[in-house]
């Protein structure tokens, strides 16, 4: 796979182990147990038991450290080579006076390094051009064929690379183009990386916690001169976060030089880590780029700007409130208008502190980078990491807090010291072997014998990682083990290579990047180089991976290369440890270091000799391993000293090397740390060499050289012998155990002797070997046999072999006896077991005889069975006896269950009996009984299923069918639940039929509620009922009548019920009660139908109660409305300018106080309302009975009557419509409360109509009506003009066009000043609308035109009041109203208000009309049927709402939804004066009421037709 490929393929997973608590208690023992498996992968992961959760013990108040800066693409070896190559080309073209611009080919940047390398591999530029193999070059660069890319690559090579290659070879560049990039505007300009050791600030190498613990002072930091001399140091940008090795730092030649800046020292930003109360830890990590670009912010930091620090602060209660409004990047709270709050963690960020900065506060949900990382899958982060690492275009910089000394900053695990008191829980974790402070110094560990605290090896190091922070490929110092524990945070991704492939990995990396290793052979030991695992795997290197989550361990094995990166913010801790099996690897590592001339962390020879000096303190396994290493070391030392003697060096001097500093005992040739011996020179005291490099010490004579030794050759074998004795003590003990277990001498040992051998192994701390395990197993098995034998003797099973209800079989008893005989242990319980076996065999013979003589008596069989149970052994014949007893018991239970006198059993009982019979051993009697039971159960289930189908079937069966089913099922001796349910349903059906007969045969028609209850009950019954259909039809007919009556009376979306509308309003006198109840109805909160009448649901069933309540309600309604009129009349008028707010002010239905122009007063209740909130009448909607209309000045005929929605609760249909409903009601066989209320309402209306006609027929009223008729005739008798006025499209029959302005003075008595009416000629054709003309006539209206005596007015007003209370439209009501209007001055304020409202309505009607026409045209275009929109007149909604054209009304409603309520609010009305045909005074005058013609106004624009109505019905 190519390193830069986006398709990163994750390597296979490493082994993951989950130890039990027993395994987890011995850390090194468990690691040794899993080593054969895990070592093959190099690394492994261990998940501790779920409840092992050590507390985080870092003292966060003073936790500060210096993180490393990492540029990801400079970590990867191949990418670094490419960047170095691009830097060289860029430098070359910079010398030529040009800037390097890298071209893009096929939408990706051209890899100039790979291009140059492939050209060289293919034979060079000239050979490729000669053979025309540029297409092959393109193919090797993974470009698609067939696009002439080869020619393009040749062009780029000639233009960019070839001049540089010629320059490198020393050729003349005269022919080269020195400006090859001037015309390449689209190419990306390359900025050189110049990787001259842009290293991160490293931890101090002079502190007391260095890796060698004061034993080896490090070399001085490389100066700038050193960097210039070392090309690889010059190239390196950063150091990886390898867990153990220290990187190089950068130091100026003059150590006192410091970078100065006039604004103050420039330092990296402060990283703040907060530990919240809940234990969660948050990080606020600013980007160094943003910090360096904002130097002025440095003055706000309280910390000295000399280094980058990270703080872990405890979140105290007072700080929590303050810091919650502080930017997590700059720790400042200013510019709060630019503070952005994370929706995930509630942290704050300045939008300009983010990377990249945001121009403004984003809308919607925003999450900070921490929360985004928490939601990103680890696989995606891994792919993105390797994409960035392999990229030569994107430079991503991260920070890593690596190799932080826990000795100085504190460990993440609890530590037992005198600094702080530990809780019992912390004490448990402080002493745990898995505590990384404890594991290196465990008894089985080798490092516990090193006195110095080697930081990173014996003392853990801490690691604080951020996303993409990485640690490069490396192996541990001295090829030791390492263990890493992730305390908290995001996962850490690891890659590992086993030790067997370590050299293969080194060879592959050297092969792929020879340029790096030529200058730095020990590059892999510097922890600065990564390589894509896919690249290594493609070259045969086995690589594994894992994701280490919080609370998990990762272990690396000796010489296992490993690397990885952090998935996000986390905190880890790591340390080295060495076990006995590491010793050979440690010796090989020293030889490897000697070849590489690398410093050692400690002396391997010193470690071996120190352990050999005290062998009694060593673990036995460790002693054996040290003995082997010591033997090899002594042999090698003998050989080297012999070579020294052969050279002629005889002088020697004892030296305590362990007391010397490490730098004073290092070989000047191979840098190894000497301990057993070294060669020195008297004349050259500053240096020494190990005995492997005796020829490299100095040029002095051999006589001046001398041997410095730690032990003589006689002392070393003595140390070796002590180790051997310690190691061989185990062999002596092992021989004893082997003789005892194998019974080699023919004598079995007692249990006490074997226990003594086990105690000796425990006391002398022998290793847990296979032999010791065999001894323990033998003891455990012998003790178990003794316990089991005792249990047999006492008749009870004991110990681990005891299982409830389980006995030892005869075969097991014989096997148990053989087991006891085969054990290498003498046990006297063997005789007891033999006796039990003899008893069992005798019982077996007796049982066989009893079975052979069947049928035996049940008593004999039962007694034999009881004796067999007392033996404690399961005998085969006992099982046969048990089967015979079970058969007899089952048959007896079967007979009892099916006996006729017994209680019927359920199906479950029968099934259980059948299941029990299946477990009984078969016999002829049992088989016959089972067959009979099965047949009975099948029949019962069939009838039960049939009953179930009857209960659940959609098509119900008649009662006769169900009765037949029940009768047949009675013969089955089984209790059937469905049959019983069917019985109950049939009983309920019969009771229901009886109830129907009773209610249908009563004295009165049944009430609707009773029928509905019967229908509901009948529908739920699973029985087919013929009467149910009849009841459903009656209920449906009653609902249909009620719906028709509701449509007749109720307004659209009315808040009243039909019964409320038909009944009188008994509480009309209380304005607050009436209004609040109306508001409750509007909100759907009031639903009582009978509350106003004071009737309960039971009272509604009595017709007499309804009639009495109705009569009482009429009187209460009249008294209430009179009281309400007096109350409302006392309220101030909204039209008055001096109106003041008071508690008695009128309140509109909208809840506001009506004030100013636009307020209307109800003619019934005298309350005030906004004209825009209620339905208002139209002035010119009253039709006339004659073909011609009366003059416009007959203002008493104008429709100015206004009833508020609280007074006019219904549509008020005409009386003949109500009579039709009553006729339909008489045909109903059902009683409805609404029907009785409608009858009372009709009687009330007819009664009022009679009184009204009587009043209108009186002598005084007849005279007044005659005057009005005479006045109308005078107005109609005016001569018509010869030439009509020039109004466009005026109809010829318009009566106002038939007269002229000069004839108007004949009726000037009706005017205020005697002036003639404004002539039509004075009205401009464009402005002469009817509403404007009516407005101009208002000042000329005067009145009254009749004088009504008080004796005449009072009865008429009382009749008018009662007529307005009726929810019925009567012509007499209109006649009385016109007569009363003519007897009083015209209400100019109301007329003006109605005109303004009608103008607003007219404007909205036009807009809706245009939209309606467009809608109908669209329907026609879609092929829909409908009337021609051009022929349809656009009427106001309130006029058309009661017309027959339901489709038009629906379309207009849809139109209102589409237009969104365009224009001002349009008042609509359901007043009968605008919906029904009132014929003025003609009914009172005895004129015939024929069809009325449309009323035309002055101009043709106001041509509003009213629907024709049928003639009035004389009651």
Instruction: Compute the number of helices.
Output: 48
The SS-based structural class is: alpha+beta
* Lateral strand order in the biggest sheet: 1-2-19-16-21-14-13-3
State the helicity in percent bands: 40-55%
Major β-sheet annotation: 8 strands, mixed
Radius of gyration: 56 Å
Low-confidence stretches: 1-5, 196-323, 796-805, 1084-1090, 1182-1190, 1280-1328, 1424-1515
N-to-C CA distance: 105 Å
Shape descriptor reads flat
The averaged pLDDT comes out at 74
Strand portion: 5-15%
Count of β-strands: 31
Question: Please, could you describe this protein's structure?
Answer:
The structure is a single chain. This protein has 1515 residues and is an alpha+beta fold. The protein has 48 helices and 31 strands. The strands form 10 sheets. An 8-stranded mixed beta sheet has the order 1-2-19-16-21-14-13-3. The chain has a 4-stranded antiparallel beta sheet with strand order 15-20-17-18, covered by helices on one side. Strands 22-25-23-24 form a 4-stranded mixed beta sheet, with no helix packed on it. A hairpin with a 2-residue loop joins strand 5 and strand 6. Helix 30 runs antiparallel to helix 31.
